[in-house]
Amino acid sequence: xxxxxxxxxxxxxxxxxxxxYQDSKLCSLIIIFKTLEGGSAVDAxxxxxxxxSIINPQCAGIGGGVIFTVMDRSGKVKIINSxxxxxxxxxxxxxxxxxxxxxxxxxxxxVPGEIRGYEAAHRLYGKLPWADLFQPTIKxxxxxxxxxxxxxxxxxxxxxxxxxxxxxxxxxxxxxxxDTVKFEKLADTLEMIANExxxxxxxxxxxxxxxxxxxxxxxxxxxxxxxVTDAWNISLGEYWILILNIMKGYKxxxxxxxxxxxxxxxHRYIEALKFANGLKKHIRDPNFSSDKTAxxxxxxxxANHIRSLISSDKTHDPQYYGKNSYLDSIGTTHLxxxxxxxxxxxxxxxxxxxxxxxVLSSSTGIILNNQLNDFCGRADNIFHGERPPSNMAPSVLxxxxxxxxxxxxxxxxxxxxxxxxxxxxxWFGKSLKExxxxxxxxxxxxxxxxxxxxxxxxxxxxxxxxxxxxxxFYNTVNAVEKAGSCISAWSDERKKGKxxxx
Length: 502
Known about the structure:
The chain is α+β, with helices and mostly antiparallel strands. Helices cover 29% and strands 18% of the residues. It comes from Oreochromis aureus (Israeli tilapia). One of its GO terms (molecular function) is glutathione hydrolase activity.
């Protein structure tokens, strides 16, 4: 889900947004306090992500994986990829048993990379002691707190799983929004990691307890590591960004106004999304396959080729865009941070689906991911240590005069939602609030178009006339931007997100 947006005002600021907090106000306060203690943007991000593991455990936690995009004060950007990896004793034919639904068993759990990601980010950019980042969340988890709105909406859907033990009151009834919840086992686990370091998670007591709890999953039977690389730079106008946007070739300088203009704009955008979905099967972990195809996606010549295949008057059968048989997932949380010294962090974390695998390690309090399902429909085989493909798009955009930190949540929904916000903000001149609030279009794994309900009926009718199948959904994005001495920020209100800062 969309979580926290935190920004820090440098001296001499001339304009700003009034600081506010979202439904997880506790985590916003933790970030501010850590920054006031002298923490870096990365310290603040790690503290916030740890807090997420208890405020919104249905979305992210230390049983999952994370990708950081970090820009230091000099403008140099690094990617820290600490997504989950394939365990050492997973059967090589696992993908032949990919489910047709989102009902997943323990065998789809990947080795969590979250803690290794924190370790790498803190080693490179941290200022505060490692243990300090854990203390506020440990205290909250052990003493308890009122269940916030969004977590409360997911509790009734946990079914008859091991997760129920987290949410039962003394009478055996499920807790609800506003009730006090405690994560005492997780507090013990976090305290151990804080005091003994990351290795205890992968090689020490925690690893042994996880293996004991989940014998059949093969979990933690190999260590995890983080892959630190330079970012790929892609030009978009005056910005250098980290993602490709096919739509820039249409050279739109203003928002479509008439019904016909809107129909054509959304049709072209939908077609671009369909081609993007069809290309997902070509993206694999570069440590296990060539990244030539992925790099090709960043070239203007490739974007021009795709654009030439887009018909203005109609859509096509799914086969036209390439094989596309993956299952949609819905998880993740995103955090954008901009610090006073110009450094920035865009970070996305996930346990994949709602409550991940729905498997709780009872001795550690960790909710485990089901991230290996991301291979389904996108690969024929997997290798030990391989990371699954990802829709995460934590991005930092930098021009001579501006810095924009942006990302989204919602798994398959992330790329189209982030692209929509960028188009509306950079090309159409909307504020961050207006750009993020603008309706989002998604194309799912079945090539069905999902629109938010606020799109005009005439536009929807026009898209259906071109052959698109229409459904409804919603998604979230958050961003923070510094333009000159002015800082603005917006955290999507679709999931009650709010920006916070000082």
